[in-house]
Structure formats: structure tokens, C-alpha cells
Amino acid sequence: MTVTASKNDRVKPSWLIAYSLPGLPLAAMTLPLAVHLPPFYAVEIGLGWMITGIIFGAARFLDVFLDPVMGVLSDRTRTRWGRRRIWMVASIPIMCFASYLVFMPEPGVGAGYVVTSIIILFVGWTMLSIVHLAWGSELSGDYHERSRITASREGAYLIGMICVLLLPALIQAQGGDKFEQIASMGWFVILTLPLGVAIAVWAIPENPHHEPQHLPLGPALKAILTNRPLRYVLISDLIAGISGGIVATLFLPMVAFGLELPKEANWLLLVYFVMGALAIPPMVWLSRRLGKHQTFVLHCLANAIMIPCIFFLPKGEFVPALVLWTLLGLNMSVGPFLFRAIMADVADHDHVETGQARAGVYFALLALTNKLGYSCAIFFSYAVLAWIGFDGKGNNAPETISSMMLLYVVPPTLISLGIAIVMWRFPLDEAKQRELRRIIEERAAAQAEADAKRLSGAG
Fold first, then answer.
1. pTM score, whole prediction
2. 45: which residues sit within 8 A by CB, 6+ positions away?
3. Contact assessment for residue 119 and residue 62, using Cβ atoms and an 8 Å cutoff
4. By C-alpha distance, which of 23, 292, 266 is closest to 154?
């Protein structure tokens, strides 16, 4: 039976819109970093597949260490403006400067320039993305309302991806070269980031946070290591990162040379993300009926069925590919928003065990495992491309194309099946999460009453 969120737990539509807006620039960096920038630096800048794979993979790996630091810092921050919003504002100048460096390089820049600019970008990106996710988990404690919050963020994310797909197409139609197309993505970040963050932090107040007793490092780490629901999520997220990294890294080569549709790649991506955005409301409805992790399992099984269909697409024919990517797009948005909604519930489990509200740490762990898997996938994918002698400008043997296609299809299919098996046994359902919230709210009320008595006694 579905329980409706109370008025106190239901987030106003205006807040949902404001909260989702920073997702626009985040998406405008996420998609190019995964799909467009690596081939751009490998081919147009001339770094080559191996060097590019090492740089982008190593940068992601460095970001793995930044995430937990940012999670701890934001959890422990105490200012008059709250502990989340101040970090989001601080990320703006860093990300804007780094976007200029990464998206607008001069022809022929060296590996040192690329490494430095990407590191700066990831520092600002971590500041914004980790804090944004943690803040969202604190807007409501309701099991299903959290799906609605993360779905709104995912919707903005997909809109941002659609925009950065359309911009290069428009630039190309006007005769712009690859450098101008990539630069348009950077300008989108620079223009939307300050506006999106400003609206979010101005429109939405942070919930009051009571200072808990200090938890020593040993018990704090033990609570994380013994958190059984967390293990399910992190294992799934790690291998999902590997799958996502392979698919994103190889998408353009796969479409251009495997499906022989080089001019249609961006259109397939556009349809994919548009369908994902349109599918969010019905998927939120489905998760309310079935439960979060049950819906997530169905999402994984659908992926495992549809991804191998790529092998059966006729070469050079756009319509069959369009049909398949439409179906894949209708399924794609489920994983990102449900994974984050589930992690908010896992953080509640830790809150009950430790008395600490550590959403920042938990979302940092979620980002850490995904990026670790992603960084390994980037390095592995480009290493395989170099090993099989793949030429990004053409002139590939049929065996080379077949090897690349196998790499694109087989690992993600097996990973989808593996995640479905793991998450089917996920131990935290709606009833258990509501009990956790009851305990947290009773403790907060008792703490507020004690604080009021102490203040009245002092007066």
C-alpha cells in the first residue's frame, strides 16, 4: 500500500524547479566529458587514444579521492547560510574558469595543459555535485517524495544534455568546426551555472541542523562498514560505473563505424535523452507502486534485453537504430534518479545508528564508486582501442570493428544482469525506511525540546 507524504514532507513545486536548476550545467559537463571531449582531444588535438585514455581515466580516479573529502567537509560545515549552499556558491568561479580551459583549448595544447585544466574542473564539479545531492536528500524524509526530488534533478540533467547536443549541431549547421562546437558547450556551462545556483540557494532554505555529539573516527568508519544496505548500493554503483563508462566512451565510434551512421550519432543521443526526460513522470509513478529497488531491478533487466539488440541492427539504416534508442531512452532515466533516492534512505540507516546526519559522506561514497568504475572503464576502453589498432578517422578492418562492438555490448549486458541480481535482495523497503524516519524525527523533537529548556533556564 502506498502512503502519501505528509504536508511537511512534500516539497513545493517551486522548490523542485529551483533545486533542479544546477543540474543543467552539471549535465552540460557530464555528457561532453564522457562522450565528446575524449575523442576531441584524441583526434582533433592529436593526443592519441592511449594518452587521452590515461589522462581522462586518471583524472576521474583523482576525483575519487576528492568526493569523500567534500562529503565530510560539507557535513561538518557550520555557517549562518547553512552547510550546503555555501559550497555550491563557492564552486561557481572554479567551474567557470575550468570550463573555459577545458572546452576552449588552443589547437596543439599539450598533455600538461589538459591534465591541469581537468583537475581544476573536477575540484569545482565535486564541490557542486556532492553538496547538491546531499542537500536534496534533506529536503524531505518521505520514502517516495525523495524519488520525486531526485527525478526533478534528473529531468534538469536530461534537459541540459539535450541542450549541449543541440548546440554543436546548430554550430555545425552554420559551418562551425569541431573547436567551435566544443566551445559552445563550455559557454553553456559558464552562462547557466551562476544563474542556476543563485536561484536554488535564494529560493530554498536549509533545514535547521542540530549539532550532535562528536563521533570518533573509529565508530564513524565502523558504522559505514557495517551498513548492510550501503554494501548493496556501492557494489551495484561500482559496476554500473564500469558499464556507463564503456557505453559513453565508445558510443561515437560504435555509431560511426559499427552502425555506419556517423552523421546520426548526435541525433540518436538527442532522441535518447528526450525519451528519458519524457519517461520520468511515469517511472516515478511506477516506483510508487512497486517500490524503488524493485523498479530499479526491472530497469536493469530491460537493459540486459535491449542492449544486445544492437548486434541485429542493419548497417547504415537510421530508422531501426532510432527505434532501439527510443526504447533505451525510455528506460535510461530510471537508474540515476532511483539510485540517488535509495542512497538517501541508506543515509537514514546511518543516521539512526550513529546519531549523525552524514548525507554528504554517503553521497560522496556513491559518487566515489561510480567514478572509480568509470575511470577504469575509460582507461580500459581506450587501451583496447589502441591495442586493436582502431583508427578514429576510419580505415579499420572488419575484425577491428567487430572487436569494438563486442566491447560495447557484452560487458554492459552482463553488468545489468549482475546489478539486477544484487538489488533484488536489497534489504531496505518503504516500511523499514518509514520506521527509520520515525526514530530520527522523535530524536530531533526531543533534542529541540531539550535545547528550548536549556535556553529558558539560562534566561
1. 0.72
2. 105, 107, 108, 109, 114
3. yes
4. 23
